[in-house]
Amino acid sequence: xxxxxxxxxxxxxxxxxxxxxxVVQRAYAAGVDRLVAIGSGYGFDSAARALAVARxxxxxxxxxxxxxxxxxxxxxEAWESLLExxxxxxxxxxxxxxxxYHYSFSVREQQLVAFRTQLRAAxxxxxxxxxxxxxSGGETLELLDQERAxxxxxxxxxxxxxxxxxxxxxxxxxxxxxxxxxxxxNADSVREVAREVPIGQLLIETDSPFLAPVPHRGKRNEPAFxxxxxxxxxxxxxxxxxxxxxxxxENTLRFFRWD
Length: 259
Ligand SMILES: [Zn+2]
Ligand SMILES: [Zn+2]
What we know:
- This protein has one domain (3-255): TIM Barrel (Alpha-Beta Barrel), CATH 3.20.20.
- The protein is globular.
- The chain has 259 residues and is of the alpha/beta class.
- The chain has an 8-stranded parallel beta sheet.
- The two termini are 14 Å apart.
- Helix 9 packs across helix 10.
- 42% of the residues lie in helices and 16% in strands.
- The protein is built from 10 helices and 8 strands.
- Strand 5 (129-134), helix 6 and strand 6 form a beta-alpha-beta unit.
- Bound molecules: zinc ion (2 copies).
- One zinc ion binds at residues 6, 8, 38, 41, 96, 207.
């Protein structure tokens, strides 16, 4: 079994529903069994688009939320409509959410409000959270601690942080997802983390449409490439790719409470 634990199947990327469905079919053809569609990162309304894909495909679930880049869009009204969608049984997580001080497309205060509000909502809804963390200088962990978010399930997606932070995350019971960056020449620190995350807390993802793994680097990324990520991580850990994919798939099902 192989699962892409994080991909953006948004019509803003793939043109229309047919374009999105073709991406899903190519993933199946490449041996990918299931996909997690992320409804976050393309504006507040990307949540509805991710849910639509999940409703059309039995092997696709959705995580929906407000990306730190879009935190400036946070309004009471938009938030209420997102909460409405989150009650759909096909929504298995809130996110991606978090802090991104690399781009700072939204100011820090807005990012903190959006993040905190979503963490609290996830608790009420009984959903795990998908975290996007970039150059937050430890603030993301602090907030997760303050809000006691760990027990509900916390996934750091597209992990490019350092080893010390990885250890803090796994100590707290968090999960780490490794992207295709692990195949890039200059990504030694990602490889170090990919080797050392406890196997029961490890997932793999494409984060498509960006960050396509080698040999597709620079092209548009898609879930069909997630076996390349699995193979790269397996090689680092000295185990068969099939076994690594199976274990990370089982971890994904458990994390999202997905039957
Ligand atoms: Zn992200
Ligand atoms: Zn993403």
